Amino acid sequence: MPALQPHPDRLFPPDPVTRRIARELHHSVRDLPIVSPHGHVDPRWLAEDTPFSDPTSLLISPDHYVTRLLHASGIPLEHLGVGARAPLDEGAARKAWRAFCELWPVYRGTPVQYWFEVELSEIFGVRERPSADNADALYDHISAALTTPEFRPRALFRRFGIEVLATTDDPADDLRPHRALRDDPSWAGRVIPTFRPDRYLEPAADDWPAAVAALGAAADTDTADYRGYLEALRRRRRYFIDNGATSADHSHADVRTDPLEEAVAADIYRRALRGDASAAEATAFRRHMLTEMAAMSAEDGLVMTLHPGILRNHHGPTFERFGPDRGHDIPTGIELTEALRPLLQRFGTTPGFHLVVFTTDETVFSRQLAPLAGFYPSVYIGAPWWFLDAPDAIARWRSAVTETAGFSRTSGFIDDTRAFCSIPARHDMSRRLDAAHLADLVVRHRLGEDEAADTLHSLVSENPRNVFKL
Amino acid sequence: MPALQPHPDRLFPPDPVTRRIARELHHSVRDLPIVSPHGHVDPRWLAEDTPFSDPTSLLISPDHYVTRLLHASGIPLEHLGVGARAPLDEGAARKAWRAFCELWPVYRGTPVQYWFEVELSEIFGVRERPSADNADALYDHISAALTTPEFRPRALFRRFGIEVLATTDDPADDLRPHRALRDDPSWAGRVIPTFRPDRYLEPAADDWPAAVAALGAAADTDTADYRGYLEALRRRRRYFIDNGATSADHSHADVRTDPLEEAVAADIYRRALRGDASAAEATAFRRHMLTEMAAMSAEDGLVMTLHPGILRNHHGPTFERFGPDRGHDIPTGIELTEALRPLLQRFGTTPGFHLVVFTTDETVFSRQLAPLAGFYPSVYIGAPWWFLDAPDAIARWRSAVTETAGFSRTSGFIDDTRAFCSIPARHDMSRRLDAAHLADLVVRHRLGEDEAADTLHSLVSENPRNVFKL
Amino acid sequence: MPALQPHPDRLFPPDPVTRRIARELHHSVRDLPIVSPHGHVDPRWLAEDTPFSDPTSLLISPDHYVTRLLHASGIPLEHLGVGARAPLDEGAARKAWRAFCELWPVYRGTPVQYWFEVELSEIFGVRERPSADNADALYDHISAALTTPEFRPRALFRRFGIEVLATTDDPADDLRPHRALRDDPSWAGRVIPTFRPDRYLEPAADDWPAAVAALGAAADTDTADYRGYLEALRRRRRYFIDNGATSADHSHADVRTDPLEEAVAADIYRRALRGDASAAEATAFRRHMLTEMAAMSAEDGLVMTLHPGILRNHHGPTFERFGPDRGHDIPTGIELTEALRPLLQRFGTTPGFHLVVFTTDETVFSRQLAPLAGFYPSVYIGAPWWFLDAPDAIARWRSAVTETAGFSRTSGFIDDTRAFCSIPARHDMSRRLDAAHLADLVVRHRLGEDEAADTLHSLVSENPRNVFKL
What kind of architecture, by CATH, is found in domain A53-151? Predict the structure, then answer.
């Protein structure tokens, strides 16, 4: 049975001199606490601290990074527990786990393989590569671990060395888990919410009128007109800030930010509420609202983050059956230079305003994103996102943005994950790759070793704290 | 005279450890048979097995990869025998060959240089780098070889170790050479046609009415109306399948697949036949037909391959004088996420349906193609095509797609060539580059050496057979 | 205090064998004269040969590569002397220099760091890395040097080994500095103008009528109608050619080249003069004029260069206060294949016509630019421009274009700089990176060492001379 033994020099370049430098750089930040300013971990796990039930419902069913390639390889999503109300029963969960282990080779060369190898080995003490032969033994081994106190969510949180963990939350959410954690004297960790208002900004959606009504209810504000709607958003932002939030996240098809006259926006709003706005008007309203959200950020200080350019739920039949976030959100192209101009005209040089732009479109790295962040004090380059949170892509990203914007204009790593157990592996991967990148600059005599070490510390520690106001 | 001696370690990375691993990996697949699922070799060469006449008409005149850069360097295409009805006469052929040898430096760093070095050396035993000084001697040397039985097409086919070779053919073609080969008891090779219906799907072309009439004649079907036209396509596909075809290839300006109502399609068809459809309608019809072709593939099993995003015959005067495929087909950008959505809504998860997407637009590798292939069981990532079938581009491609889609979702190599003698060099180049890529993953501890070896074998052997149903 | 000591092997790959080859290649071209066919040095500096006043006004205030990242880091542009009528006074200049030295770490990994390290060290003999601690000492050190004869512009020009330096000039400019230099018997250098007619081709600009009137005055031609306008352009081109110009440079939002009927162009011209043309007509006129400029180039021989795809003056408030070229010109995307087609239909194969395309949009390198230059004898691939004139970007560029177009179709290096003292560092950087690229091809056995050396010599010497007709 092939051994599973993540190498201490993994992800470092092969050249011996460069590798030594990378190793030393990595060593200097390896044990720094984890700062996770953006992700999708369920805060109830930590608030309730209930044990995870089984390997499949912990590691497979909720993680579309994992289920995607199994689906492409012919495993129906329902066999993997995707979108189910409750975890699969023991027999089905085992069967899903077996499929995963049998198909382990399809992950070769992907970060899923990398993350799993590290987390299976370092968290669960697994010593064999998954395969059809050992699938049941691994299942039993992990299941047994999950029943012990050391594997309950809070224990893992502490073991992972997480200093701060941001979740992603609906503006109408009461943030009960966050408040429960804050009020729990036995809990010292920092788990903060993130304001994610996407659905309230898209009047084209069928459920938008209901959504803004719910928002109004949560804000105790009448959202029958545009002013009330803005006020409701403002209040809920305040509520989030009062409960620890430092950022607001936005993910739409594009990032155009063309403002509308207030009367025009109010009119579209009114008509959209009764289902009487055109698709073009709904889009215009959303673009206008993106600038309005920047205005609110400039006022209340929430860092504005953008995750644009994704066509969600590409395969209709899968969406209808399994709901959103099932691995078939597919990137489109994005444009930043013209799209963000109206917003940046108004707030680009506003002190304290932070705009962090993430993208899955590599073509804007050197062409638009780095030039914008290299001039505007407000603009930061988000770490490679989603499909690009992977070793080669991260190397391409650093290569593409650094020469124009340096290191100080980058956000620091965000894991963006709902796979709680992958958090240490992901942050360590980022530190290793930054160490490798810096070591390469050193060995090409573009940077002193002292400069590289100082830079790496900033990337792991100061950058995310400063950019996300943590 | 500088020696021509392709190095045994060519294309491997310089780091000694990585190189050793790459060498061993390559060694393990070096002698596997060649599977060529897509290309443009003339099947008559093999059916008739007539000797090639001279170096120029074999290696230069028909190969726009070669003539392009000579043209850019000031050599008129007519001097190279491009587009001529018959091979150049001895004097002109020698002159063309001399121009090629004199301008040998313009190929530095291109795959043409690489392929030629390997094929001149390994097939023809040339031991000197081409130059003005040795042009005539090389011409004589190759000419002499071409008169021997060992250099006749069938002998080369066997020597190259080709297991299967797919050609590209017009749907109205009678496939006589393929049938002759199949029926020839002295011939054991597998040469299969590919159904390439582009011209029948573009009503905007002047000769479209004549083309569909010819198609109808070939299918013994009346194509006066849309139903007859579909039936003719269906019958010709069946004819191709009966003669060994396993795939249908499509190359249009874009890959939008928006379906039309049948009545609308029928109406456009009818009017287009009498030259009465607008350009927009012709485009709409073609996009509709792409989904129809997918429907037929889902039914009859022909693998659907796409080669989109090329503006053919960019320079009008050259096209008028020399015809198509003369080296001035220039890529545009393509979009896949929205364009393929209608097709994938219907057939994306249909068992047995295979869609292989090739592109010369690198921007979609990580952004669209790998995410699509990483979810849909039907979608495969085609090997780097045309301008991108080159060492650095192949490395960029593997780097861009693997982290999202792994190795199992890639097509395996296709040579896409009309340069028969370059086939072994091209397939070996691909094997070397895959070995180099995998060795790099091994040395960065992202993959075990056993996993790399298994993956490389799949890429050379299982992937093309499975993806192309060979 | 960390030492500033550019390493002799800087920018070479770490692998020892590759590094040795790169070093030898670089050595063979290190001392060749500098050919600078495109840049923005002020010719009056050389004509008048007045000493530079202080480090800030020489190295910071005029260089938006430098001020950009300081601005992003929170330093207001007015503190840096940007856009001021006169140099900052001593106190303010020192303060700006201190800000620069304190913020030195923001340049890590950028070419600004690289260029400065080399120029501070090799030109000014600085031996310490800039920092808050030594800012004043460095200021004094450089100020003192600037008062000596060795640091006057002409002395530096000679010391830098510049053989030819092209400036960028307005068509109505009288080129007095160029003529003064030419007529000065004590001056042997070659400083030539470049015809840059952008503002005369954009009828949408408010000052366009005044501009064409001024052009007419300079050309002694009545520009009241379209024919006179064309004639004025023709005469000014001739004037530039008579004063040494070999190229005409064009920078617009896109490079569409759709021709208009002469009557249509004349009509738009007439109405635009009285402010009566629509934005769409103004754009159509500019696109038409790009083909007209090609027609003039085909006639008078001026090399046509394109620098498209930039949204100038992105941040309105900054533009209003500080004027153009302040570091917030941000790239957009460009398209070449369809855009240049009309121009290339007419002039693509015209003997003697040269079209050099520069871009900040990496996506067209392999997809459009290399395929065009690999076929059309007139099209050359411009060296990586602006944000892309940096080590990693240059490596990506060579990797992206070489496999399709080889080396002979590339322009040779252009520095495009207004930072006079950075010229040697920039050209040497290019030579080092080309040496590194070629060494990598050698060590992968894709190129002989003799071929690499010959190629590098051409890139430094023959290519720019041939492409720019120097």
Answer: Orthogonal Bundle (1.10)
Task: Give long-range contacts, CB 8 A cutoff, 24+ apart: A137-140.
Answer: A138/A55, A138/A97, A138/A101, A139/A54, A139/A55, A139/A56, A139/A93, A139/A94, A139/A97, A139/A98
User: In the 8-state DSSP scheme, what is residue C33?
Assistant: P
pLDDT confidence of residue B1 = 74
**Partners of residue C2 in chain A, C-beta under 8 Å:** 448, 450
Cβ–Cβ of A109/B337 closer than 8 Å? no
The whole-angstrom separation of Cα B297 and Cα B313 is: 29
Report whether pLDDT(C356) > 80: yes
* Rounded distance between C-alpha atoms, residue A198 and residue A250, angstroms: 6
Q: Please, which pLDDT band fits residue A1 given cuts at 50, 70 and 90?
A: confident
Q: Do A107 and B409 touch (CB under 8 A)?
A: no
CB A391 within 8 A of CB A405: no
Q: Which residue from B10, B71, B331 is facing C337, i.e. has the nearest CB?
A: B331
- Residue ranges in B220-278 assigned as alpha helix (H): 226-242, 262-273
Q: If you ran DSSP here, which 8-state letter would residue B458 be given?
A: I
Average pLDDT in chain B: 97
Chain C residues with CB inside 8 Å of B387's CB?
Answer: 366-367, 370-371, 403-404
The pLDDT score that the predictor gives to residue C71 is: 98
The minimum CA-CA distance between C316 and chain A, rounded to whole Å, is: 6
CB atoms within 10 A of CB A393: 23
Residues 6+ apart with CB under 8 A from A119: A421, A422, A424, A425
Nearest to B289 by CA among B368, B203, B380: B203
DSSP 8-state code for residue A337: T
Neighbour subunits, A (≥3 Cβ pairs < 8 A)? B, C
- Residue B401 has what pLDDT? 98
Which neighbouring-strand residues pair with B164? B35, B190
Structure tokens belonging to residue C348: 């693509």
Contacts of A445 in chain C (CB under 8 A): 6-7, 9-11
Question: Cβ of B367 and A333 within 8 Å?
Answer: yes
Q: Residue C295: what residue type? A: A
We find that the CATH architecture of domain C52-148 is Orthogonal Bundle (1.10)
What CATH fold (topology level) applies to the domain B51-151?
uronate isomerase, domain 2, chain A (1.10.2020)
What is the percentage of chain B residues whose pLDDT exceeds 90? 98
Cα B356 to Cα B382: distance, rounded to the nearest angstrom:
6
Structure token pair of residue C412: 């040779």
Burial classification of residue B31, based on how many CB atoms lie within 10 Å of its CB (0-12 exposed, 13-18 middle, 19 or more buried):
exposed
Q: For A298-311, write each residue's pLDDT tens digit.
A: 999 999 999 999 99
Which pair of tokens denotes residue A394? 């991260």
pLDDT digits (tens, 9 = 90+) for B10-63: 999 999 999 999 999 999 999 999 999 999 999 999 999 999 999 999 999 999
Residue C109 has its nearest CB partner, among A372, A407, A443, at A407
- B107/C374 Cβ within 8 A: no
CA atoms of B111 and C441, how far apart (whole Å): 12
Tokens for B285, please give them: 């019809």
Contact state of B403 with A396 under an 8 Å Cβ cutoff = no
In chain A, which residue's Cα lies nearest the Cα of B14? Answer: A15
Q: Give residue limits of the domains in chain A.
A: 53-151, 154-467
User: Which residue does chain B place closest to C410, by CA atoms?
Assistant: B106
A422-429: average pLDDT: 98
Cα–Cα dist B171/B231, whole Å: 13
Alpha helices in A243-331 (DSSP H): 262-273, 279-300, 316-322
Band (pLDDT 50/70/90 cuts) for residue A361 is: very high
Under a CB-based contact definition with an 8 Å cutoff, are residues A450 and A186 in contact? no
Domain C154-467: give its CATH code. Answer: 3.20.20.140
